[in-house]
Design brief:
Layout: E1 18-21, H1 26-37, E2 43-44, H2 56-66, E3 70-73, H3 81-86, H4 88-108, E4 113-117, H5 146-166, E5 171-175, E6 177-179, H6 192-206, E7 210-214, E8 220-221, E9 223-225, H7 226-239, E10 246-248, E11 254-255, H8 256-267, E12 272-276, E13 285-286, H9 291-295, H10 304-317
Parallel strand pairs: 1-2, 1-3, 3-4, 4-5, 5-10, 6-9, 7-12, 8-13
Antiparallel strand pairs: 8-11
Helix pairs in contact: 1-7, 2-4, 4-5, 6-8, 8-10
């Protein structure tokens, strides 16, 4: 059923079973929405309570039962600077176990097409900007999230090894900083953008006169709405087949200070914004070179301000289901 590696993949069968690992999170839920919207009728997932992907026997048992034809591996333990720097063992161990279990089970039970999703933090801290895929393993990682990055790098190499040894057309993609519905808005475990949304929205609700953000506000970051990312993933599954992982991004970046100004405006906050320069900034710039993705015919569609307005509206309407 598989095609030889190197050929252009065919359009996916909308009636085939697709397993989205991590379907409740920011990434996985967006992919689920995109697949269903595009006519896939047999998309399945399990919550972490229902299926612990760190448990190898449980994962193999699930694959034996479900027998998916396609898999998107979006499950991961994720967090911001504080969480990554505080719990590096957890981020390395849990993510490696999740990846190895799912990838091994997918191989064992004949998954035809698989997409592994990583993160732009796989690249060296001082990689030349914008960052090309070839920058992988050419320099030192950002120390605050090196454990998570190593786990994701292991996943890329695992997919490449499957291609070499078994000839399966599995692929990997590395999204930039994502935001949107079902993000983690925890004050200690979230990434910079959802953390800011919560901070400014709380300030509006409490009539606070000031908000304090971490760092100097000078680092530059690229942001992509999760729905754009999901659209790119489906596009890659149907149009890309190569051992080289692919960057997914918008191709443009803004400073953290600029993103704070947009969020303040979108939430209606009118107070003062302060910056705690004693807190770490992280990588000074992280902008992905998306020319490889662009060459396949894909471009991002959701404007940053529009995407933030949607996300703030979702956040305010979803207080009962937020990860806080």
């Amino acid at each position: 059923m598989t095609h030889p590696v190197g050929e252009t993949p065919n359009k996916l069968d909308r009636g085939a079973r697709v397993y989205v690992a991590g379907h409740r999170g920011l990434v996985g839920s967006a992919i689920m929405r995109r697949l269903v919207a595009d006519g896939f009728v047999n998309v399945v997932g399990k919550t972490s309570t229902e299926l612990d992907l760190r448990n190898r026997d449980a994962v193999f048992g699930y694959f034996e039962q479900v027998r998916p034809r396609y898999v998107v591996l979006a499950a991961a333990k994720v967090g911001g600077i504080l969480a990554n720097s505080t719990y590096p063992v957890d981020f390395l161990s849990e993510n490696v176990r999740i990846q190895v279990n799912v990838l091994d089970a997918a191989l064992q039970f004949g998954v035809e097409r698989l997409l592994f999703l990583g993160s732009s933090c796989i690249y060296p801290k001082f990689a030349e900007q914008p960052i090309k895929e070839e920058a992988l393993l050419t320099g030192h990682l950002e120390p605050t999230n090196d454990a998570y990055a190593i786990a994701k790098i292991a996943g890329i190499l695992h997919v490449q090894a499957v291609r070499r040894q078994y000839g399966l057309p599995w692929i990997s993609a590395m999204p930039t900083n994502l935001y949107g519905p079902n993000d983690n808005f925890s004050p200690t475990g979230s990434h910079v953008l959802p953390a800011m949304i919560r901070r400014y929205d709380d300030a509006v609700a409490s009539n606070a006169t000031s908000v304090t953000n971490w760092g100097t506000g000078t680092p530059r970051r690229e942001f992509l709405h999760a729905d754009d990312m999901a659209d790119a993933c489906l596009h890659l599954l149907e149009n890309y087949d190569s051992p080289q992982h692919v960057n997914i991004g918008s191709g443009t970046d803004v400073t953290i200070r600029e993103i704070a100004e947009i969020i303040a405006s979108v939430t209606g906050y009118q107070g003062e914004t302060l910056w705690d320069s004693d807190k770490p900034d992280g990588t000074p710039q992280k902008l992905l070179d998306v020319s490889k993705l662009s060459d396949t015919g894909w471009r991002s569609k959701i404007d940053l301000r529009d995407g933030l307005e949607r996300t703030v509206a979702w956040y305010r309407a979803s207080a009962d289901i937020l990860r806080r």
